[in-house]
């Protein structure tokens, strides 16, 4: 009973996960307006009479590309972590170090699992 009440309260405050995934195209359209040189990939599986099923998302912003070329070491590190929400998956990121030894994110992706296809 308490679990259902907490879940309903959370959905009222921030919305449910399915609704958030349905807004990804709008988010990518806003990225195009604010960052024209960016590179994105959104892969979804269409389902008749329902919202499409999320597959994977890749984002690399133009400013991150330029920053990597201008001031980072030429060695890229790849890292990933598991997402613990309702849908699961993995968050993968390509990072580097700048001249101050700080981590610099070049690109990131949300995928089902870490495979050659993703």
UniProtKB/TrEMBL annotation:
This protein's name: MULE transposase domain-containing protein
Protein source organism: Arachis hypogaea
């Amino acid at each position: 009973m308490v679990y259902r009440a907490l879940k309903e309260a959370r959905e009222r405050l921030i919305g449910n996960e399915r609704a958030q995934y349905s807004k990804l195209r709008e988010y990518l359209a806003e990225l195009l307006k604010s960052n024209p040189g960016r590179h994105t990939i959104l892969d979804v599986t269409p389902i008749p009479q329902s919202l499409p099923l999320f597959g994977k998302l890749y984002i690399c912003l133009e400013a991150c590309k330029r920053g990597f070329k201008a001031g980072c070491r030429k060695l890229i590190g790849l890292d990933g972590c598991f997402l613990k929400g309702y849908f699961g998956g993995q968050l993968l990121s390509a990072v580097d170090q700048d001249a101050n030894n700080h981590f610099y994110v070049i690109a990131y992706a949300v995928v089902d699992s870490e495979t050659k296809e993703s």
